[in-house]
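Consider the tokenized backbone below.
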């Protein structure tokens, strides 16, 4: 599985609609509206890099109101929960 974080600039009048449409796309796990340099952040998980190459330009970028995307591929996941789970099973 490949996880990617997609930073999305959206027409301000269409942020809510774009966020919901993107959240409904297969492969999109979460969409966050946020303050800062971008309007939305989407977390995606798909089978392989080819699926990311399809999802972002052919689906996310084509959602009405989306103006620009920047995609970051995740290498590893680090979280407090991962550490706590490892210790709870005796690792």
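A designed sequence for it:
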């Amino acid at each position: 599985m490949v996880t990617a974080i997609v930073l999305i600039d959206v027409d301000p009048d269409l942020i809510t609609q774009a966020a919901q449409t993107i959240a409904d796309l297969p492969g999109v796990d979460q969409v966050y509206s946020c303050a800062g340099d971008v309007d939305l952040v989407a977390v995606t998980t798909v089978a392989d890099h080819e699926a990311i190459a399809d999802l972002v330009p052919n689906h996310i970028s084509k959602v009405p109101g989306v103006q620009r995307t920047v995609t970051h591929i995740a290498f590893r996941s680090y979280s407090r929960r991962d550490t706590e789970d490892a210790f709870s099973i005796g690792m």
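The mean pLDDT is 92.
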